[in-house]
Amino acid sequence: MTPFLLIVIAVLIVALVYLMVRHDVRERVIEYLNEERHLGKEKRKATLLRHIRSRGKITNDEAEALLGVSHSTATLYFDELEAEGKIEQKGEGRGTHYMPIKPLRGTEPTTHER
Q: What's the CATH number where 53 sits?
């Protein structure tokens, strides 16, 4: 083999290893960011739920201001909390507000859920 051919093969091997490592790092970064996004969302939902439980009710506008999120994001959080059986919607349109669902005796939320 000529020295030139050896250099070309070495460069190709280095390039291949670089691309494989880069792909792995990229996948790990994406996974980390998705986990952080999910944790942030869960923290905001927990904040919203604590506020509802302490105040008795909350509107979408109040949730937007409390969390610094858009109207649709606040609505999404309310929908998820409602599906989880933690809150209920009262009223419609501009009069809509959300209230905590009173837990049955013995089913109080854990410290983590508060």
A: 1.10.10.10
